[in-house]
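Ticket #4471: structure export looks truncated?
Reporter: QA, pipeline team
Priority: medium

Steps to reproduce: submit the single chain below to the structure queue and open the exported record.
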Amino acid sequence: MSKISIKKRKTYDLRLTKFELLHLRDLFGVVLPPEGKKTLSQSLAELENRSMIESMLWNKISAACEQAELPVGQDAPDYVVAPASPPPMAVFQLANEPELGEEEQESAGFIKDSEE
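Actual output as written to the record:
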């Protein structure tokens, strides 16, 4: 009969104040546009292939919040990433534009310096 060994994963103690736990809860709840269906934490976890880890961590945070009598779920505030103002705009010359010849410059409304 062979022995089955179960690997234990090392864990680390993390002692949080109520305000630190509250901040961590809020960080996990930041929703991303455009649909608002995923949180920043979920998107990062998908990108790094850690969705299961993110889910387990959220369960621990949620349980700690309940133990500390902090609101979770529908009772907790929602946050969303959204533009706060229009993005700055500027005009740039394209680097790959072919140079205009003298005739093309005149027909495009460009006047040579010497003709001013």
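Status: closed, not a bug. The export was complete when the record was re-opened. Leaving a note from the reviewer for reference: The CA atoms of residues 71 and 92 lie 49 Å apart.
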